[in-house]
Amino acid sequence: MVATRLPNDYAMQDGVPQTAVQEVVTNPHTGMSVQLTRFVDHKLGKSYARAAWMLGAAAGQTASLQRLKSA
User: Fold this and answer.
1) pTM (2 decimals)?
2) 23 lies in a domain?
3) What are the backbone dihedrals phi and psi of residue 6, each rounded to the nearest 5 degrees, phi first?
4) Would you say residue 67 lies in a domain?
């Protein structure tokens, strides 16, 4: 069993807009999504990209026989 979710937008605080472009990128074969953040460091003259997602996993309860479906 694996559970994933996208992280919150930590750059948006107190109504001040972010200084980067964020988008959700989804793999069509697996359905897994990542939060892609792209930004530019104007002092260095470089652009960057960062992909993030959160992962959680746990052992199932074999005695309960529950079937989990994607929401």
Assistant:
1) 0.55
2) yes
3) -85, 145
4) no
Q: Tell me if 38 is assigned to some domain.
A: yes
Q: Tell me the per-residue pLDDT of 27-37, one tens digit each, with 9 for 90 and over.
A: 899 888 888 98
Counted domains in the chain: 1
Backbone angles phi, psi at 46, to 5 degrees: -125, 150
pLDDT at residue 28, as a whole number = 92
Q: Give SS3 for 37.
A: strand
Range of the domain at 38: 2-8+16-57
Burial pattern 28-40, b for ≥16 Cβ within 10 A else e, equals: eeeeeebbbbebe
Please check whether residue 68 lies inside any domain of the structure: no
- Give dist(CA 49, CA 38) in Å, integer: 4
Q: State the Cα–Cα distance between residues 3 and 41, nearest whole angstrom.
A: 33
